[in-house]
Amino acid sequence: MNAVLSVADRLHSAAIHLLRRVRKQDIATGEGPARLSALSVLVFGGPKTLKELAAAEQVKPPTMSRIVSGLARSRLVEITEDPEDARRLRIVATPKGTRLLHKGREMRIAYLASQLERLTPDELSQLGDAVEILSKLLQHWG
Amino acid sequence: MNAVLSVADRLHSAAIHLLRRVRKQDIATGEGPARLSALSVLVFGGPKTLKELAAAEQVKPPTMSRIVSGLARSRLVEITEDPEDARRLRIVATPKGTRLLHKGREMRIAYLASQLERLTPDELSQLGDAVEILSKLLQHWG
DNA sequence: GAATATAGTTAGCTATGCTAACTAATTTAC
DNA sequence: GTAAATTAGTTAGCATAGCTAACTATATTC
């Protein structure tokens, strides 16, 4: 197996297992990962329509419809009508939603960071560089 | 934000977005990601009991019980009794299961690899080293 | 004004995760 | 040598999250 295939394979496996670990932290916020991820788009990207949110999360509209319903039920987002087009929804994170997102993010990152502390400074630096490469790649994904 | 926190945050985000993309490839095999991941443990790690599989996949026994049922229904694994302890199941990948795993793995990896091809050889090598560090960290997770 | 296109929802399916409560088998304790 | 405790897995029941197909309501186009 050539180098590209080998890296691809192990990268996939590492990503799966990393997220399984982290998911347990997310659950402590009382909201699932799909909701937290959608909420994060709203908090950092501002108000969105349902279709925009679905596209940002790479999910179909009925799926996002349910995610948004859940967030609204927990008062983490607020839904208003678009004054220019009554078909559209304007979805905004509430202050409560923003607070919860930040809290969850802190918990998750603190947990991850506590594990990363085991690495040597050199390994951490290597990992940091690699994540940078990967993030850029994901931004320009084909 | 210090270096550890920053790496933790970006690593998490990259893992989420990477898997969202790859999930679509997995679906083409006709089996979900949890089943493929469990099957992979059997193919590369040999026969396992249900409890061992659950532990390897960081999932509770009832969850793994259903995953294994699904795999058995599709004839991707075979379940026999442990001759030494009738409470235990011995779960083995069938030849069909092994073939499907390799096929799915090829599709997924080919897709990932086609994206990784955009990296320079140097970047790829850095990413490979980092994945190695990460895999080891995940094995000895606290 | 009628046909078409677009935004979201609803209904209904599958898959994955959990806990609680169960059965069956083995081990331990007496 | 049997009763109690432990261990392996299953079943039932709940929630989240993904999908497609079919629907409603609004806008746009012809």
Strand and helix layout:
The structure is a homodimer of 142-residue chains.
Chain A lengths: L2 H25 L5 H13 L4 H7 L4 H13 L3 E6 L2 E9 L1 H22 L4 H19 L3
Antiparallel strand pairs in A: 1-2
Chain A binds a DNA duplex (30 and 30 nucleotides) through helix 2, helix 4 and strand 2.
Describe this structure in words.
Two copies of one chain form a homodimer. Chain A is globular. Chain A has a two-stranded antiparallel sheet. Chain A is mainly alpha-helical and 142 residues long. Chain A contains six helices and two strands, in the order ααααββαα. The two termini of chain A are 23 Å apart. In chain A, a hairpin with a 2-residue loop joins β1 and β2 (85-93). In chain A, α3 (50-56) packs across α4 (61-73). Chain A has one domain (3-139): Arc Repressor Mutant, subunit A, CATH 1.10.10. The model of chain A has no long low-confidence stretch (mean pLDDT 90). Chains A and B meet through α1, α5 and α6 of A and α1, α2, α5 and α6 of B. The structure holds a DNA duplex (30 and 30 nucleotides).
Overall number of structural domains of chain A: 1
| CATH level 1 class label of chain A | Mainly Alpha
Helix content of chain A: 55-70%
Mean pLDDT of chain A: 90
Multimeric state: homodimer
Global shape of chain A: globular
Task: Output the strand order for the largest sheet of chain A.
Answer: 1-2
Q: What's the CATH H-level superfamily name of chain A?
A: Winged helix-like DNA-binding domain superfamily/Winged helix DNA-binding domain
Q: For the largest interface in this structure, which chains are involved and how many residues does each contribute? A: A-B, 54 and 56 residues
Give the name of the CATH architecture of chain A: Orthogonal Bundle
Distance between the termini of chain A: 23 Å
Instruction: Count the E strands of chain A.
Output: 2
